[in-house]
Amino acid sequence: MLNSLSGRFLILTTVFVMLAEVLIFVPSVARFREDYLFDRLERAQIASLALLADDMIDPDLERELLANAEVYNVALQRNATRELMLSSPMPGAVSQSYDLRKAGPLILMRDAIARLVDPAPRLIRVIGYPSREAGQLIEVTMDSMPLRDAMLEYGLRILLLSAVISVITALLLFLAVRRLLVKPIKGVVAEMRRFSEAPEDARRIIRPSAGVLELREAEEALKSLETQLSASLRQKERLAQLGGAVARVSHDLRNILTSAQLFTDRIEMSEDPSVKRMAPKLVGSITRAVSLCENTLAFGKAEEPAPVLTQFNLAELVNEVLEAERLAIDDHDLSLSEDIPGSLQMRGDPEQIYRVISNLVRNARQAITGSGEPGEISVAARVEDDAWVIEVTDTGPGLPPKARDHLFQPFQGGVRKGGAGLGLAIVAELVRNHGGTLRLARSDDAGTCFEIRLPMGDVG
After folding, report:
1. CB neighbourhood size of 140 (10 A)
2. What is the pTM assigned to this prediction?
3. How do residues 259-314 score in pLDDT, each as one tens digit?
4. Is 119 left (phi over 0), alpha (psi -120 to 50) or beta?
5. What does DSSP say about strands 123-128 and 96-99: parallel, antiparallel, or unpaired?
6. Residue 172 contacts residue 6 (beta carbons within 8 Å)
7. Distance in angstroms (rounded) separating the CA atoms of residues 352 and 307
8. What is the C-alpha to C-alpha distance for residues 155 and 148, in angstroms, rounded to an integer?
9. Which of 168, 183, 229, 368 has its CB surrounded by the most CB atoms within 10 Å?
10. Where in the cell is it found (predicted)?
């Protein structure tokens, strides 16, 4: 219980209330001491009135008056004359004097604490003003022990009352905290546990109901988190199912394409010049399709295969990409160009680099043809000190804000209506496998530019 939130509130409240009472204790005891001394002065003044009424009083009466006032002697100053009104034998010399006429709060508290911590009996002199302006001053001599005993008794009552108040206050706060804070927090914890048992079930998402502003904000944040997590888990489940379906389709498609490869041998034997010119491209496309199916079947391992690094001519590879894309342009006013030195040799996996550039060029082509406006796509490359840099630039309409926010995330970065949003995610992974980086260099009304940077060092 003491380790709980409400238990700690109980302890802290008790401690703070006791601390507050201690701060009140010292002024209270000082005030009690001042009232006690004034009371003795008033009693002494009343006793001295008997002497003023009759100059000669019986010694027994005088002792009775002094005992009633709890003082040893009384001196009164009237009309600038100081006169010893009542007196009796004193047990010793006066050790301290207190002038109540000039005592401020700090002095009174200091003297009160000094009196409490000093257990020795002392004879003290107290000076003050007579009540009802019955003179200039009144002075008495008294024993300090009755004063100290009265102060201790009063202090104990104060401390006992403080303890009772602190316990009652702490208990009330304990109950309030349990009702207003602990119970709603336990409710949130219970909702979290309930959701963790079946996070895919949207019915288990918390429904904010707390009346406390901070708790309501926590519930709203938890609801948002659970909603996103539930959606992500459902999406991952669909992706897993989709992956299984794609793997099965790719398996059969690979067999079909393998059979198609056999027919290309006969096509290459044709005497038709157009067929001879197109046959190598057809063979290359079918070979890449078969390779892609095999890679898709390997996707069950949750990653693209490691790149097989070789030296290849980048200009020739880009030319193959652009030739394949020109076949899909039809009659749209779209030009494709490349600016790559013919002698540029780079090290990488040519099949994966082909897929990288092909995906970027295809995305640009689909964006421009979808806009209905003429355009241009350009692939340029350069060699820097430690990297090969490839830029794919188009004059299309640019990427919408939503696509920029989730650019390289599968199933979320799609731009084209009906697109799955996988192209850029695949491109980013292939570039990353080469130790390189893919970034959106620019995207606005004037077009889009992607920059691929591949390091010249070995790719592990």
Report:
1. 28
2. 0.43
3. 565 566 566 666 677 766 666 767 667 766 666 665 555 544 445 678 889 999 99
4. alpha
5. parallel
6. no
7. 7
8. 10
9. 368
10. Membrane
Integer Cα distance of 372 and 369 in angstroms: 5
Domain ranges of the chain: 5-169, 303-455
Distance between CA atoms of 126 and 104, rounded to whole angstroms?
15
Q: Are 365 and 334 in contact (CB under 8 A)?
A: yes
Under 8 Å between Cβ of 48 and 85: yes
CA dist 184 and 219 (Å) reads 10
Burial 258-286 (b: 16+ CB within 10 A, else e): eeeeeebeeeeeeeeeeeeeebeebbebb
- Residue whose C-alpha is closest to residue 123's, from 95, 164, 82: 95
- CATH number for the region 303-455 comes to 3.30.565.10
Contact indicator for 100, 37 with CB cutoff of 8 Å? yes
φ, ψ dihedrals at 137, nearest 5°: -160, 160
Which tokens hold the place of 30? 């000082």
Q: Which two tokens stand for residue 102?
A: 């000039």
Q: Two tokens at 199?
A: 């996070």
How many CB atoms are closer than 10 A to CB 250?
Answer: 20
Reported as a single tens digit per residue, the pLDDT across 147-192 is 999 999 998 888 888 778 877 877 887 788 778 777 888 888 888 8
- What token pair was written down for 15? 């401690």
Under 8 Å CB-to-CB from 57, ≥6 apart: which residues? 50, 51
Strands (E), 267-351: 310-313, 334-339, 345-348
